Amino acid sequence: MSRRRFFGQKEVDIKLRLAPTERPRTLIPWWAVALRLVRVRWGIRRQSWGSLSGGQTWRRVALDPHVYSRRSVVKASFKRNDHTGGWAAHARYLSREGAQQEQGKGRGFDAEHEGLEMVPLVRDWEKHDELLWRFIVSPEDASRLDLREHVRGLIEQMERDLDTKLQWVAIDHHNTDDAHVHLLVRGVRDDGRTLQIDREYLKLGMRGRSQEIATRELGPRLEPEVLHARERVIQKEQWTEIDRSLQRKANESGLVSYEQFQPRSDAARVKAEQDVARLQFLEGIGLAQRVGEASWKLSQDHERDLRERQISKDIIKSRSRSQPRDIGRGLDRGFDKTRDRNG
Q1: Residue partners of 238: CB distance under 8 A and separation at least 6
Q2: What is the pLDDT of residues 166-192, one digit of tens each?
Q3: How far apart are CA 296 and CA 301, in angstroms?
Q4: Model confidence at 264, in pLDDT bands (50, 70, 90)?
């Protein structure tokens, strides 16, 4: 479907032009410059982060990831032990036939092993533990990554951040448009205390670590990749990269205006047109109000509403996919509502 163009030129033509110089300069690859920007933006400081027990760990200080870093979605929830077999039921559900591969029961993995039976392991945790942490890790470039090694690297970093060894099991799923990993972490620290994880670390830390690992593996995103990723989410009822950009552009009253916008490059023009298309979509679902030819006022509940819509859709899709196979099995026993920790 075509959309209105606000900024003239219709064709996207992104070119690199080298300015003439009087003397030779050392050539630095584009990816080295971009990676340097990513590292500077993320700057590392030693601070307390992550564990509510107060362990000294590494903390990344950043409001947002750099625009060229790889993207990842991490959703977190926890389940307290009510001794009704809910943890084992969840592991059985994750291992169900068809979720990991088209035929055959799903098998889990951990730091050193493949082909693990998840149910007996989780059932053993359920005999004694108070808490089970549950995560969904979904890098944007999952098809280009070894998801199992990605999660292993993420766990290693979490252990450093939380200052404790972790016992865990995970399983990769390929039954949706975006491949992802379900990660179950035992809620016990290596000293026997309950593993408590700070809300801020769940919201920013894990996602940042996953993105850092993906960026290190694949290199920073190219400009066309950034534009393509933004284009894909213009009409999605979820919190997106474009919404985060609009939030930064908005003034104190939530006004975002492109009335006087003059693009300095083709890429800037395309991004602005994507922003405007997103604002038009938000207007259609009642989360933005048009106040001028190219100005909108964002709803005060813009972010919260989009996150809630995404959670609701995820739950509906999950139930729809599993209902024909799992009806009558009671495999959803003990489930609690997933808490979206995306930033």
Answers
A1: 306, 307, 309, 310, 313
A2: 999 999 998 777 789 999 999 999 999
A3: 14
A4: confident
CA–CA separation, 28 vs 26, rounded Å?
6
HSE value, Cβ hemisphere, 13 Å, CA-based, for 126: 20
Please tell me the pTM assigned to this model. Answer: 0.65
Q: pLDDT by residue (tens digit) across 17-56?
A: 444 544 455 555 555 555 555 554 444 333 334 444 333 3
In one-letter notation, the amino acid at residue 115 is G
Number of other CB atoms surrounding residue 230 within 10 Å: 19
Residue 50 gets the label, from left (phi > 0), alpha (psi -120 to 50) or beta, of: left
Q: HEC string of 159-220?
A: HHHHCCCCCEEEEEECCCCCCEEEEEEECECCCCCECCECHHHHHHHHHHHHHHHHHHHHCC
Q: Contact, 201 vs 160, CB < 8 A?
A: no
The pair of structure tokens assigned to 96 is 């169900």
Q: What six digits make up the tokens of 137?
A: 């890790």
Packing angle, helices 302-326 and 241-249, rounded to 10? 170
The letter for the amino acid at 3 is: R
Specify the residue for token string 């205006």: 257
CA dihedral 198, 201, 202, 203 (to 10 degrees): 120
